[in-house]
Write a structure and sequence with these properties.
Layout (H helix, E strand, L loop, with lengths): L13 H8 L9 H11 L12 H7 L4 H24 L3 H4 L1 H27 L10 E6 L2 E6 L8 E5 L7 E13 L1 H4 L5 E3 L16 E2 L4 E13 L5 H11 L6 H30 L5 H15 L4 H18 L2 E3 L4 H7 L2 E4 L11 E7 L2 E5 L10 E3 L2 E3 L5 H12 L4 E5 L2 E5 L2 H12 L4 H4 L5 E5 L7 E7 L5 E8 H4 L3 E6 L2 E4 L2 H16 L3 E8 L10 E10 L6 H10 L3 E5 L4 H10 L8 E4 H5 L3 H7 L3 E5 L3 H13 L4 E5 L5 H6 L2 E5 L5 H5 L3 E3 L4 H39 L11 H11 L1 H8 L22 H24 L4 H22 L7 H4 L5 H16 L6 H4 L6 H11 L2 H15 L14
Parallel strand pairs: 9-23, 9-26, 19-22, 23-25, 24-25, 26-27, 27-28
Antiparallel strand pairs: 1-2, 1-3, 3-7, 4-5, 4-6, 4-7, 8-28, 10-11, 10-22, 11-12, 12-13, 14-15, 16-17, 17-18, 18-21, 19-20, 21-22
Helix pairs in contact: 3-6, 4-6, 4-10, 6-11, 6-26, 9-10, 10-25, 10-26, 11-25, 11-27, 12-25, 13-14, 18-25, 25-27, 25-28, 25-29, 26-29, 27-31, 28-29, 29-31, 29-33, 29-34
């Protein structure tokens, strides 16, 4: 059995690696040895967390303070119903109607949340797995294709362009190999690989002698030895890191939990006070006061709140899905609205993840190239004026050289234009196609007779074609510092000019300037007669600068974030210069900001990182551990952190963040599983739209919480005051209270939950993380509205005390209708009803009308015995409706007074993030 594996495989030579794993690289492992080793070390599979059972997901819907309070109230109500049955009799259905109503609303709420989250999970089922399915393995001297899952350390594998790497592999032989490692390291461009040994402290992204599971070969061929498999790979190590991260509650869950605790404490305190006072002072019976206490508890708890919150979040989830943002967990719908920092990956999120030529230099002129990505549409401009290849021989020759000296393919697929092969070569094909030059057309009658492939030490590539006249013509591309020294002349227009020191200096200056802009620069040259050495005495055609360009809409989205007080921080595995250049172009990075590399971060302790993290706008060359430390540091600073990512190395930070946002098109399953939100279009601008939606959702939650609680305050104060009347009847039954809470108040509250956003959602700072659902001013407003409703109710209760049924009916009707008028007050904390617009939420009028009509049903003769109501006269209806509408003029007057003083009136303030 070989020695235990070491960590730094890149530091060992090929012979040492083979010796440690006991394998002959010419033969590979025998089938028996591989089987024995697999039995000892296990299959080449990443450990998978078993899916959470459906019953657990359903149970989680009940673990909420408000829901638990409702269940407790239902239990007490069941005890009261049982005692009533023993003393007064009556049907079981009528006695337990309160219990049934409470339990029904609890279970409906739980099912709503459960099925919405299940629906989001199903939307992700079709997203692909990233692990390789098959691998070419040397077994006993024969090259065979086997499932990647059967690989073991010591297996010798062969890989070629397009293959996914099936495990962590130490390269022992390579030919022109470049690997796409964006999923693991965040590196935007391909990485060259060879078999050379490297120092132990070489960063992961620069370990040229290693191939890692989950990456893919963009070009070339290689042979290597599997050194780690399954959970021991870099991919598996990151998976374990993800498993160690504990996911906390979302800001909304924390706020609702705190709010539920406050209601529970207030409910118990008031109920206990009434119960004790009634027995000791008023001399009421134990059963009577128990009924009163339960009535107060039922009145204090907004029974519809959990269900309406769930429905509002579910509707928000659907609106976000239409904007390409799939929310996996219901409570996360609102979290983005609380976000104070967005930590975003660069490649594919801020940029298109498609290399694009932005600039070319021909004949000492620098031309701009328009168009984005691999779509072959765009033009060449000099000083803003179009330059056509047919008008400039040097430009035409550059495009011809870029197309011929190329090993990739540009294809028009149903999903759009795509590149098969190296992304850099794809960008060159796209550039040539913009000028009307396609590789297949240029090679008609001009066969390729010789190819000198790109190699990491040469950094050049040459293609020799035989022209129709039989002359062999060489086309060369490569790094500018390799190609330019081989040139004796340069092409200007259609004239060959000598390559003197002045021209070389100008070309070098252009190369340096483009590199400072984070463009990858390539030089192109040719030789009309190839001769014995097709790479000597060349004629320089021009230079090309390319990059993975920012998405066109991102700069405006970043500007929206700045206005909204949301800080954008770029965290990428790419180079510092590239990252800061993109950051400057998108206005993420400004002169006063700092950029920090992963190596610099490693030198800082956690306290040192905490003290500097707020000044850094770009973190470059970072690993999975670095990203996790950054997110934790920001959270320790009190920030609500949204983290975006698409790679495996983003997984731990995505899970640690307040809300993880994964890419749905170009991302990995690991990233998606660790996140709460998946972007179907991989676009940063979608995140900003989701922030806007999250803020609107929270504002609407504030509206209906304020509405429900101020309405319930009227109920509580009415029952509370009435309980001090000795030998008096209860002004409301428990069923009437539940009817008001769930039926007449429920639909208007839901209408407030879908209220159109007020202006200025993205022009104010985020809410402080410590702020609750409602602030002190909101509680004061709730108390004021509750006192108005209660005062009117107590007046009716006292004035008609001689006729208990009539008095109870008038109080019941008033406390059912008054909230319907009050909904108009709740639409804005400061603006008047007319300023908001009477008909900007038409569903609210439908809800108010429907609730009013439903309330009238309780007056029907057939339902009067159940609701203990009686018919009212026209005059009595006039009094009830007039008193019910009283909150509107009083609250409007209060709003007008506060507007004069420049202060908001309702449940939130502009300063805390509400419009």
């Amino acid at each position: 059995m070989p020695a235990p594996p070491v960590v730094h495989w890149h530091t060992l030579g090929a012979e040492e690696v083979a010796k440690r794993w006991g394998v002959d690289v010419a033969l590979g492992l025998s089938a028996d040895a591989a089987t024995e080793r697999r039995a000892q070390l296990g299959p080449n599979l990443l450990p998978e967390k078993p899916p959470e059972p459906a019953w657990k997901k359903l149970l989680k819907q009940f673990l909420d303070p408000l829901v638990l309070t409702l269940l407790a109230a239902a239990a007490v109500a069941a005890v009261v119903a049982t005692l009533e049955g023993q003393s007064h009799g009556g049907s079981v259905l009528s006695r337990f109607s309160d219990v049934i109503a409470i339990l029904l609303i609890v279970f409906v709420n739980a099912l709503l949340g459960f099925f919405q989250e299940r629906k989001a999970e199903k939307a992700l089922d079709a997203l692909q797995k990233m692990a390789a399915h098959n691998a070419k393995v040397l077994r006993g001297g024969d090259l065979v294709v086997l499932p990647a899952a059967v690989l073991v350390p010591g297996d010798v594998v062969e890989l070629e362009s397009g293959d996914q790497v099936p495990a962590d592999v130490r390269v022992i032989a390579a030919s022109d190999v470049e690997v796409t490692e964006a999923a693991l390291t965040g590196e935007a461009t391909t990485v060259a690989k060879d078999a050379r040994e490297l120092p132990a402290d070489t960063p992961l992204a620069e370990r040229r002698s290693m191939l890692y599971m989950g990456t893919a070969l963009a070009r070339g061929r290689c042979r290597g030895i599997v050194v780690q498999h399954g959970g021991e790979t870099e991919l598996g190590r990151i998976g374990r890191l993800i498993g160690e991260v504990e996911k906390g509650k979302t800001p909304l869950e924390q706020r609702l939990a705190d709010f539920g605790k406050k209601i529970l404490i207030a409910c118990l305190a008031v109920s206990a006070l009434i119960f004790v006072f009634g027995i000791l002072v008023s001399g009421q019976s134990l059963l009577t006061m128990l009924i009163v206490a339960v009535s107060v508890a039922v009145a204090a708890i907004p029974e519809g709140l959990p269900a309406i919150t769930t429905i509002t979040l579910a509707l928000g989830m659907q609106r976000m899905a239409k904007r390409h943002a799939i929310v996996r967990e219901l409570a996360a719908v609102e979290t983005l609205g609380s976000t104070t920092i967005i930590c975003t990956d660069k490649t594919g999120t801020l940029t298109q993840n498609e290399m694009t030529v932005r600039s070319v230099m021909v004949g000492l002129d620098e031309l701009a190239v328009t168009g984005e990505g691999y779509v072959p549409q765009g033009r060449f401009e000099l000083g803003g004026q179009e330059v056509k290849p047919s008008d400039r021989e040097d430009l035409k020759m550059l495009l011809e050289c870029a197309a011929i000296c190329n090993g990739a393919q540009l294809e028009d697929s149903p999903e759009g234009w795509r590149v098969v092969g190296d992304p850099t070569e794809g960008a060159l094909l796209t550039m040539s196609a913009k000028g009307g030059m396609w590789r297949k057309d240029l090679l008609v009658g001009r066969p390729v007779v010789r190819e000198i492939p790109f190699a990491s030490d040469r950094r050049m590539m040459t293609m020799v074609v035989r022209d129709s006249n039989g002359t062999e013509h060489s086309f060369v591309k490569g790094s500018a510092d390799k190609v330019i020294p081989r040139c004796r002349a340069y092409l200007q227009g259609n004239v060959s000019m000598p390559m003197d020191a002045e021209v070389r200096a100008k070309a070098d200056a252009v190369v340096e300037r483009l590199a400072d802009q984070a463009l990858r620069v390539l030089a192109f040259a040719h030789k009309p007669v190839a001769g014995d050495d097709p790479e000597a005495n060349l004629e320089l055609i021009g230079l090309v600068g390319m990059m993975d360009p920012p998405r066109a809409e991102v700069r405006a989205a970043v500007a929206d974030c700045r206005k909204a007080g949301v800080r954008v921080v770029m965290i990428t595995g790419d180079h510092k210069a590239t990252a800061t250049a993109i950051g400057k172009e998108l206005d993420i990075f400004r002169p006063e900001d700092r950029a920090m590399t992963g190596a610099e971060l490693e030198t800082l302790s956690d306290p040192e990182l905490d003290s500097s993290v707020d000044k850094v706008r770009v973190f470059a060359r970072v690993t999975a551990e670095h990203k996790l430390r950054i997110v934790r540091s920001l959270k320790r600073r009190g920030s609500i952190v949204a983290m975006t990512g698409d790679g495996v190395n983003d997984g731990p930070a995505l899970k640690e963040a307040s809300i993880g946002i994964a890419m749905g098109r170009g991302g990995t399953d690991v990233a998606r599983e660790a996140s709460e939100l998946v972007l179907a279009d991989d676009n940063f601008a979608t995140i900003v739209e989701a922030v806007r939606e999250g803020r609107a959702i929270f504002r609407n939650i504030q509206k209906f919480v304020y509405f429900l609680c101020s309405s319930n305050m009227g109920l509580v104060l009415t029952v509370f005051v009435a309980s001090f009347y000795a030998d008096a009847f209860l002004p409301l039954t428990a069923l009437q209270i539940l009817w008001i809470n769930l039926v007449t108040n429920g639909v208007p509250a839901l209408a407030l939950g879908i209220d159109p956003p007020e202006g200025g959602q993205m022009a104010v700072p985020p809410r402080p993380p410590s702020e609750g659902i409602l602030n002190a001013r909101a509680y004061g407003g709730m108390m004021a509205v509750g006192i108005i409703m209660s005062a009117c109710s107590v007046y009716l209760y006292s004035a008609h005390g001689a006729d208990p049924e009539r008095a109870r009916t008038m109080v019941f009707t008033l406390l059912a209708l008054s909230p319907l008028f009050h909904t108009l007050n709740c639409r804005s904390s400061q603006s008047s009803i007319l300023q908001v617009g009477l008909f900007t939420n038409r569903f609210l009028w439908v809800a108010v009308g429907a609730s009013g009509a439903v309330q009238l049903l309780t007056m029907l003769p057939v339902l009067q015995p159940i609701f203990k109501t009686t018919a009212l006269t026209g005059a009595e209806w006039g009094i009830v409706i007039g008193l019910s509408a009283l909150p509107i003029p009083l609250v409007e007057a209060w709003k007008a007074f506060l507007r004069l003083r420049g202060q908001p009136a309702g449940p939130a303030t502009v300063a805390t993030g509400s419009p």
